[in-house]
Amino acid sequence: MSSLPSITTGPFARAQGSIVLPGSKSISNRALLLAALASGTTTLSNLLDADDTQVMRKALRQLGLSVSDQANQVCVVEGCGGRFPVRDADLFMGNAGTAIRPLTAALAMQSGNYRLSGVPRMHERPIRDLVDGLRQVGADITYESQEGYPPIKIASADIAIHDVVKVRGDVSSQFLTALLMALPLVAKKSVKIEVIGELISRPYIEITLKLMARFGVLVSCPDAQSFIIPEKKSDAVYQSPGTLSVEGDASSASYFLALGAIGAGPVRVLGVGSNSIQGDVAFADALSLMGAQITAGEDWIEVTGVKNASGKLNGITLDCTEIPDAAMTLAVAALFAEGKTRLNGIASWRVKETDRIAAMAKELKKLGAIVEEGPDYIEVQAPKNHADWLSPLEGIDTYDDHRMAMCFSLAAFGPNALKINEPDCVAKTFPAYFAQFAAVVS
Ligand SMILES: O=C(O)C1=C[C@@H](OP(=O)(O)O)[C@@H](O)[C@H](O)C1
Ligand SMILES: C=C(OP(=O)(O)O)C(=O)O
């Protein structure tokens, strides 16, 4: 498929309509792996069909599992009862953190020989803390080129469970997620995972624990840093729940909620709401702090413009440690706010699809915003007047980062048409993003 070099869109003044959200990436990839490891058949509905879930489905097939083609967002997985049929495989994980990290841990428990690699950026994204955690139970993992980064090689090893496995939580929560999902496979006795230092992105751990519970494994948390995995009672630890319906993606919702605020609305997202298990629904609270008018039901959220007398959003200072993905949307929404917006607790942006703090700062400046960045924060001040907005001829660069492309679509509500380069990178989690965007803006 050929990819678009750029799109030019806007300027728009109004956003109105409703969007059925694609399935959550975080839930989809966890559900695929747990369904593969379980005994029994699992029918997954509303599964995300995008680059990140395609690499997971393909890898599971390479590992000998039956994973159906996706028709109408439904995918049927025949579980293997904890032991992958294929003992030797070379797996390409694209740039999907939710695929490579949990799969690495599950494969390290398999007594097989595996190699995992990805796109060049994946080879710059850290995996050391996970490898260090897995080595504590005897896993044999080596780095193929740079220490601490994929590609990695897993060799067959005797796994021996200790009472405690320690893992750092301040670079990515996905390392803890990976250990949580994999260790039950080998837990001949109960094992405690202890998080050393700060645990960022904690709501993603809640997603992990809730999905593990759906597949029959209950982890207890005696305190904020400890997770107790129960002793395994049979060979097949995970049991299929039969069917599992994936919620809409709360991070994908953030773009449309922001549009409802800056484009007067009403814009309604269908698929996430007050019943959601995703931490990124808290984006709605952040947007409300900025002055957006928000209502919600169990599985929908709606934004109807701004409640402030000024008719504009207001800047906020917010700790975004728990909502790293949706926080990017706040940084671009800040273009439409009076006063500064400062987002703290976002150091992890630097090790994601790109260095997101540097990329965000550079591209916001191209539009005339005043931006300050630090190791773990960004501060954004909107252009003062319409006349102060800049219209960069070279366009907004997206750095092969889906969220850069989706966030910057909001800037088409500035006074000028906007050119966004390489917009097809949205395929990582939301292939239809720009079509859905076009359907609500005018
Ligand atoms: O576990 C998950 O599903 C995710 C955790 C977060 O990563 P970090 O824990 O690295 O912040 C988030 O940014 C990512 O998009 C999805
Ligand atoms: C950080 C992200 O992805 P990944 O799951 O690859 O970490 C993201 O989707 O914003």
Please characterize this protein's 3D structure:
It is globular, with a radius of gyration of 22 Å. It is α/β, with parallel strands linked by helices and 442 residues long. Helix 1 (25-37) runs parallel beside helix 2 (51-62), helix 3 (97-108) packs parallel to helix 5 and helix 7 packs parallel to helix 9. It has 2 domains: 6-22 and 250-440, UDP-n-acetylglucosamine1-carboxyvinyl-transferase, Chain (Alpha-beta prism); 25-154 and 162-230, Enolpyruvate transferase domain (UDP-n-acetylglucosamine1-carboxyvinyl-transferase, Chain). The two termini are 29 Å apart. The protein has helices spanning 25-37, 51-62, 97-108, 128-135, 174-182, 202-214, 250-262, 283-289, 324-333, 356-366, 402-408, 433-440, and strands at residues 6-9, 15-20, 41-45, 66-67, 75-78, 88-92, 113-117, 140-143, 152-155, 164-168, 191-196, 220-223, 226-229, 243-245, 264-270, 292-297, 300-306, 313-314, 317-319, 337-338, 341-344, 370-374, 377-381, 418-421. Bound molecules: shikimate-3-phosphate and phosphoenolpyruvate.
